[in-house]
Amino acid sequence: MAATVYNLFVINKSGGLIFYKDYGTHGRLDTNDSLRLASLWHSMHAISSQLSPVGGCTGIELLEADTFDLHCFQSLTGTKIFVTTESGTPGMENMLRLIYELYTDYVLKNPFYEVEMPIRCELWDLNLAQLVRKDGKAGLTGR
Amino acid sequence: MIGVGRSKQNLNVVDRPLGKGKTEVLLSAFAFLFSELVQYNQTRVDNIAELERRLEDAGYAVGIRMLELLCHREKGNRRETRLLNILSFVHSTVWKSLFGKVADSLEKGTEHEDEYMISEKELLVNRYISVPKDMGAFNCGAFVAGVVKGVLDGAGFPARVTAHFVAVEGQPRPRTTILIKFSEEVLQREARLG
């Protein structure tokens, strides 16, 4: 089954939304809703790691709902990248790592990007579009 | 100095062969360093032209040193004295040593006799850089233009060197062209040499 991504979020370490993209299939959000969801997820993620009965928990990695899955990746610096996908989509962990790789390459190595601020980098958009195609299907399989 | 024989140890430093040096560095390390160089200079300028000039100056210092080093290493202490030879030296020897490959193309300008262009589909310094729209045609290749200027100036071919984005049909990304405009005296000398 091909992976279908509905939305992609990147939030900075204080919970602010710095990048949002929807792939036009399901669950399109307007600007306010996307901001709200991003900061809500940031808090839930933080609470979950505190509430966890097991020590050393880093927060929710996968949230399974009736109609979608939410996969989350947290970098060492606290930047979180998360996607909502079709339920039961496999291989998202790997996909998030690839997205993180693009983020470190085309956002962090760009001298005109200010850390923690909204991402506006042409090369990031370009390479992200190659990884997740317009319809939300994974573009580069087996990379 | 482990593994170095006693006789070698006693050799005077100038008698030892010139080391080849480690020829490659990690691209990520370079990208971060270059990014910092741009950011550092950006905080110290008021306009884009000034930033371009500062990057060019930084590259100029590299160019002067590269010429010296490569003449020693590759040319047996000789440097090129003819226009086309020095251009191909920049296009191949300098490029190979700096970027690990020969530049994509070296062309003569069609409109002016004194203009030459070195083009790269993707200049190494621009690999991860997206220039924001409000900075117009600014190109971080100004650093590389500075390197070329340094080499040419050092070799006795004063020139004005600039970096430009040139859109390519069917490609989402423009390529970078380094435009070299030689001073009048260079062309006069070339003409005298025949």
TrEMBL record, chain A:
This is Trafficking protein particle complex subunit. SMART domains: Sybindin (SM01399). It comes from the Eukaryota. The lineage of its organism: Eukaryota, Viridiplantae, Streptophyta, Embryophyta, Bryophyta. Its main location: endoplasmic reticulum. The keyword Repeat does not apply. It is found in: Endoplasmic reticulum; Golgi apparatus, cis-Golgi network; Golgi apparatus. Part of the multisubunit transport protein particle (TRAPP) complex. Belongs to the TRAPP small subunits family. TRAPPC4 subfamily.
Automatic annotation (TrEMBL), chain B:
The keyword Membrane does not apply. This is Trafficking protein particle complex subunit. It holds the Pfam family TRAPP. The keyword NADP does not apply. Keywords: Endoplasmic reticulum, ER-Golgi transport, Golgi apparatus, Transport. It comes from Sphagnum troendelagicum. Its main location: endoplasmic reticulum. The lineage of its organism: Eukaryota, Viridiplantae, Streptophyta, Embryophyta, Bryophyta. CDD domains: TRAPPC5_Trs31. It is found in: Endoplasmic reticulum; Golgi apparatus, cis-Golgi network.
